[in-house]
Design brief:
alpha+beta, 2 helices
């Protein structure tokens, strides 16, 4: 990915405990993104949330479970991200998937600063 410049942010909403085979779903997605050559991926864990089922999942001590919400964010050039979407086909447990145009202003320790 070149920086600064236009890119796409891919967000994948899922939850802890979802599996892709014997591996955690979020781990499988991040590893596939790396194999696909995408610039980077981050998994964010949410303390509270709900999805299509409208069931609330929280991190309260009495409600600790492996169903807390996770968001996987991947940023790269639009063509590469759209190509990666095919990698997600058939992976169970993926919830909402969104794409958003973003402007990358810094990427890496020696990236030029915008200004």
């Amino acid at each position: 990915m070149q920086a600064p410049g236009q890119a796409v942010l891919l967000r994948i909403y899922t939850e802890e405990g979802k599996l892709a085979g014997r591996r955690a779903l979020h781990e499988a997605i991040v590893l596939r993104a790396r194999e696909h050559g995408l610039a980077g991926a981050t998994v964010l864990r949410g303390p509270m949330g709900y999805g299509q089922s409208h069931v609330i999942h929280t991190a309260k001590i009495l409600d600790l479970s492996i169903k807390l919400p996770l968001v996987i964010e991947i940023v790269d050039d639009e063509d590469k991200v759209r190509g990666f979407l095919e990698e997600l086909d058939g992976m169970p447990g993926i919830g909402l998937v969104t794409l958003e145009k973003v402007e990358v202003v810094h990427y890496g320790p020696n990236a030029p600063k915008s200004g």
